[in-house]
Design brief:
By secondary structure, this protein is mainly α. It has helices at residues 3-15, 20-24, 46-51. The chain has one domain (3-51). The chain is 46% helix and 0% strand. The protein is extended, with a radius of gyration of 14 Å. One of its GO terms (molecular function) is pentosyltransferase activity.
Length: 52
């Protein structure tokens, strides 16, 4: 399954039930996140995150 198709299915499943953030955030809302960790780790899903 292509990344975009997978993400569309996942979002449809989550938002189909009236997700809280869907109700309080504007449709074109953009956010930035920073990860602060006490030790090194593994980041998985970068390809998927970049598609959002």
């Amino acid at each position: 399954m292509e990344i975009r198709t997978f993400l569309e299915c996942a979002l449809k499943e989550d938002l189909g039930h009236g997700d809280l953030f869907e109700r309080v955030l504007e449709k074109d809302f953009k956010a930035t996140a920073f990860v602060r960790a006490k030790q090194e780790g593994v980041f998985s899903g970068e390809k998927y995150a970049l598609e959002l």
